[in-house]
Amino acid sequence: MKKILLAVLLCASAYGSAQESTPDPKKLEPYVNQLGYNMGESKRFVCYGAEDDTPFQIINTRTSKTVFEGKILNNEGWFSGFDPTGSNDEYIIKVEGHGNSVPFSVADHLLETASSKLAYDFFVDARGFADLETYDMASVYGGGPTRDVGAYGLEAVFEVLQYASNPALFDNWKTELGDKKVADLIDLILWHAEFAYKYIDYNGPVKTRHGTLGYQGQPRMTYDYWNTLDQLAAVCAAYHSFLKPYLPEETYQKYRKACLDNWEAYDRHKVVRFWTYSTKWVDKGFQEFNEMGNAYGQSVFRNLFMYECERHEKDGNPEKFLKWAQSGASDIITNWDFNNPRHMWWIRNAEHITPQALSFFLLLAPDKAPEGIKEKLEAWALHMKQKSNNFWKYRKHSETEWAHPKTKELGGAPALGGSMFAVAHLLNDPDLRALGWAQTDFVFGVNPVGTHLSNKSEDRVKIGGYWAGVEKGWPQSHPHGYGELGKVRGALDGSPLDGQFPIAEKLEAIEGKNDGRVFGKNAYATEGWGISNRGWQATVTFSTLGSHSLKVFDAKYKEEISSVKPGQSITIQLKAALNLDRNAIDQGWVLLKHGEETEKINLKESGANTGTFVGSFKIPKNSSVSFLVLSYGYLGLDKSVRLDVKN
Can you give the residue ranges of the Cellulase Ig-like domain (predicted)? Predict the structure, then answer.
């Protein structure tokens, strides 16, 4: 009740009356990540207009005691060292002369445990037809599978990566799709795979298309069926790591054959340029790279997936796919121009794919990666630090423009965090990781509007489609746009335009039309978009790279070990984003590879809300192998430990 009352008072303070103009910075409250902050990670808030050295306090809402103190610098307050271990309490930030923030939490892997299900729930809800037998491409906006995009959505690619990053988490959700015995995310991957196969050569009508597809001077496509192969490639790679129990070999071979037969005919072996002709005012004309299916780096992803698939096949030819992946990566190393907006923010929702594709090469096959990838990622990291050197930590477009003046920038902060997490992990760059967390803070309210970028509608709250604990959602909504995404769980709806920086006027919650209109200087009235949510899904996925860990100890759980003897007992420790219920003991597992055999070892949380998962295992007495491998995760997103067996 206390939190509800406080939220009501704060909401009233935040929005004010429709007659208010530019807000008085002396009255602006602290803007925090309304969901909360991850333990052990960077933490910050913004209090616009607060003078340097203005004190702030963090107050426990249960005890009313001050638990942390600091001072404002450049409109920001930092409290990264505040890590209340094992606490379920909530906190507010008080700034002298500016009032209080909304309540927030600090918890183990809070972002991932609160957002992972919603990240894929969006794609469950946004399908044009759940039944593939009755799917009507002509009546679905953009075709499918997601009803607001075509095959360029690459849903299966990023669903595969999400599962691979934290597989035990998704065992918790099995009730929405399929036979209720398999993780819903697995069933969703298989649904998207079958969709891609069904429409692998579809070039018929779709409900609406903002442009055409194909090369200049050649016949145009009405549907981007080439991209169906990219999705099947991800599924074929996943077959060998985690999909084999769920995907019949006959079906897998059918998908594989479709890729092999069409790969070069569909130009999946190379970087695709100037393929999309857009009729949108924001990017009208032929685009070198675009969010509509020819993203820069997409070729690296798909060819690496096929390399991973083919290297497990007796009759496979992985080297040719590796060569194509290397060629695509070399193209990026040579030609990716950070100062060319058509390679960066201009391609909006596809921008995240470029750094993530290079990162994926170093994660999946580091010894096969061409020279120069790490150096290119270092240069990108430096560029991002320079462009986001402001108190919002927002990647600015230019010296004179924060963001686009008329259109949503959902391809920015929601997706940029994932790119920063991936690159920071590979470069061991804590500053870049902290900048990635600032992007997620931006999504949840540390932005000029002071709200989450998802509209908190009654419809979404009723169906469990919103983040628990987030008070203020995006103030405008457009629930009945082309995609009809108003009732889709976890949908992002808008982001501040250039006119809202450095701080927005007091905003009035309205529903508007998706016509580029800005309500005074109010927030853009828009709707979600599938590839905007894809970028957010990638952020939730790659955040785990810097926080998951796997270790092996002796039987007494005292000394970390790297070698074992047959018959010896060991203790396995996994730290991962599996702490769903902070009042209960959660479950996890790891895989043990023993020669050609693999078995699952179940783990339990060491105590309620510890976030550490442990289990015991006894090395077989008759073990004849020279080493064992323990692992958690797949496809380069895994953590693994090699144990030498000393017979």
Answer: 32-80
If phi > 0 it is left, if psi is from -120 to 50 it is alpha, else beta; for residue 48 that is beta
DSSP string over 546-578 = GT-EEEEEETTS-SB-SEE-TT-EEEEEEE-S-
Q: Which residues contact 571 (CB under 8 A, 6 or more apart)?
A: 552, 553, 554, 555, 556, 557, 614, 615, 616
pLDDT digit string (tens) for 38-96? 999 999 999 999 999 999 999 999 999 999 999 999 999 999 999 998 889 999 999 99
Write the burial class of residue 398 (CB in 10 Å: 0-12 exposed, 13-18 middle, 19+ buried): exposed
- Give 56's strand partners: 70, 95
DSSP labels for 343-400? GTGGGGGGTTHHHHHHHHHHHH-GGGSPTTHHHHHHHHHHHHHHHT-STT----SSSS
pLDDT digit string (tens) for 508-528? 665 655 444 444 455 665 667
Q: How far apart are the first and last CA of the chain?
A: 62
Structure tokens at 150: 């075509």
Q: Say what angle helices 413-427 and 353-364 make with each other, to 10 degrees.
A: 30
**Token pair in block for residue 69:** 């103190």
Amino acid identity at 591: L
In angstroms, the CA 466 to CA 147 distance is: 20
Token pair 């690496």 is at which residue?
Answer: 304
Question: What is the phi-psi region of residue 104: left when phi exceeds 0, alpha when psi lies from -120 to 50, beta otherwise?
Answer: beta
